[in-house]
Amino acid sequence: MKRTAINLLIIIISIAILPRISSAQNNSISHKVDSVLNLMTLQEKIGQLNQYNDDLYATGPVTVDANKIAQIKRGELGSILNSQGTTRTTGWQNIAMQSRLKIPLLFGQDVVHGYKTTFPIPLAESCSWDLDLMEKSARIAATEASAGGIHWTFAPMVDIARDPRWGRVMEGAGEDTYLGSRIAYARVKGFQGEIPGATNSVMACAKHYAAYGAAVGGRDYNSVDMSERQLFEYYLPPFKAALDANVSTFMNAFNDLNGVPATGNKYLQRDILKGLWNFQGFVVSDWASVGGMITHGYVKNEYEAALAAITAGCDMDMESRCYKNNLAQLVQDGKVPVALIDDAVRRILRKKFELGLFDDPYKFSNSERETEALNNPEHAKTAREIAAKSIVLLKNENNLLPLSKKLKTIAFIGPLVKAVKQNKGFWDVEVPDTDSNFIVSQWEGLTDKLGKNTNLLYAEGCKVQGEDRSGFEEAVNVAKQADVVILSIGELRDMSGEARSRSNINIPGVQEELLKAILATGKPVVVLINAGRPLIFDYTAENATAILYTWWLGSEAGNAIADVLFGDVNPSAKITMTFPRSVGQIPIYYNHFNTGNPPKDDNDRFYRSAYIDLSIYPKYEFGYGLSYTSFKYSNLQLSKKKMKAGESIQVSVTITNTGKYEGEEIVQLYLRDKAASVVRPVKELRDFKKLNLKAGESKTIQFIIDKEKLSFFNQQLQWVAEPGEFDLMIGASSRDIKLNDSFELID
Ligand code: GLC
């Protein structure tokens, strides 16, 4: 007994003194920052505000800079992006240590969904609704990247997006602000860990600030125009959630917002981020977006671009050279006070101190740790687990799935069956001298899963793109020999991602014609759809026997797909972005306003807010996803029907697994504010729980409704909850509402 008490005491004390940036440390770091700042020349200060690309590869248009090394030796560079590995980062740091003040370099990279181990693209992961697992995925990415000398990842991308034509939907967490905020928080925590400067963590970067996902027409880099209320209500909250998770940096954006480019947007960066939200980290531009303001037509030249950006609160200039070439002159001309430069430098130096780089500039570049971190089998296991949990079961006619492992003959057909790197999706990382491109292909996953007694046949059938149908005959012949056909089709991985917007989001080429030819054999067909966005695939949706949306699942793609196909994992994912029926239906999202003429149903489309020639419903709604089992929702109870602002309502509901497979269910809680000072959506996700139930098992789960969940930004941009009636909906998706009730918020 005594020992336990002592242990408990030790735990309590250690938690209390857990090395966080306590206020005492904060002061000492501020003191250290100022002591360095006071030694710096103006040129050295300006140097800290620049980030250049390494020479390995580029994620934007490169500015050739022959004297990069000389600049670093003069202490005139703050950070390098896209440098990798302990050897290379050590090399750059060695040069920085030759400078007068030996201010260490920061190394940043887009470690978006994995470093050596590639995880599912973030949009796929978001469909798992598994916050712990998404945090763990980011944790592993950070562990591997930091072991490779990286201090800072340009992730998570937290842009809310409602237009699947936009290629970068693959990088985010879908259309919903509440879910996107929860995921943003989890990912920042995963990347940064609990202890700033820990060598298994990296600084995170909330991007792209702000509203980049609302580009007109889903065309990347395009203009964004919206009310401030919409900005605060739907697009800023995930950034605020990242800030609440103590995110170290923000990245601004390429788009203009209401006529002002985000990079030069003082309202966004100074008034809101550094003012209202009191952000203490630093803001980096997007690739050359400082100079990009000339192209926008916002400034005339680089001199004005540098002035606009530094004045607006953009602390670091990625790659444009506008700061390097103009800030000294701007100071000399009295246009930029040194205080503004000092503020930006302080923010950057503070992070370098917090990371411990002044004590040991090489602390992250450790080859032993790199070897160990990059060869940890646990990482692949986690990748396989989250990949399987990201696969969405869209259709399962006659319960064709899961397939039996005892099937005699399976035909595995399609242009993506034996693809390898395609499974990495966009924003993958190639780590030199490692097998970061080792991916379990879909073919490999099935061959590893199936015993000798299953004959697995293969045919490519066709390419992803193009009109060549010459492979159809072989594919049909292979299909005829099989008990079941698995067809793996979709878009290519570089048809989504940055600068990958598509005007037509159908499954490209003749892939659906291939499906049609195979279906003519009368065999049951499971279709795997590989994509970085919601696609449109009406023929497949109507005619395939079963459909799994497999996104781009990363290193363990083949194993995860095999786990789900053969029932070792019961799919539980639910889509976090609406799938439209047609491009004409875009934008379509679940949390829309009711309007004054809402259609009641698909037969009520005239003189309604509806198309006369198309269903009012999307193909698949936000929150939709099937399971191999079934769930019953019952016994919805509210602790009371009236609540005051300072009170809360306990909501309980019982979920029962009524099928024969153990499975996970994502129970969604939606609210509707029936009447308010601004119109409110027909429903909004305000909570969710993912629970595992054995066949026949029931669990009663609880939610808490408090004022926060009832609040919104009113016309004065105040965050308020207004008295009145609320509908409460418990759903298996935003459309499949199982139980309803209502309550009232009273004064
Ligand atoms: C790119 C992207 C941004 C990325 C940066 C550095 O243009 O917009 O998300 O972090 O440049 O690669």
Key phrases:
747 residues; alpha/beta; Rossmann fold; five-stranded parallel β-sheet; 26 strands; globular; binds alpha-D-glucopyranose
Strand arrangement in the largest pleated sheet: 11-16-15-14-12-13
List each distinct ligand once.
alpha-D-glucopyranose
Query: Under the CATH scheme, which architecture of the domain at 380-585 would be assigned?
Result: 3-Layer(aba) Sandwich
Q: Which stretches are poorly predicted, pLDDT < 50 over at least 5 residues? A: 14-19
* Radius of gyration computed on alpha carbons: 27 Å
Briefly, what CATH class of the domain at 380-585? Alpha Beta
Count of separate DSSP helical elements: 23
Instruction: Report mean pLDDT, rounded to a whole number.
Output: 95
Q: How many beta-strand segments? A: 26
CATH superfamily of the domain at 380-585: Glycoside hydrolase family 3 C-terminal domain
Residue fraction in strands: 15-25%
What is the end-to-end distance?
A: 51 Å
Structural class comes to alpha/beta
Query: What fold name goes in the CATH topology slot of the domain at 380-585?
Result: Rossmann fold
Q: How many strands, what sense, and barrel or not for the largest sheet?
A: 6 strands, mixed
**What does the overall shape look like?**
globular
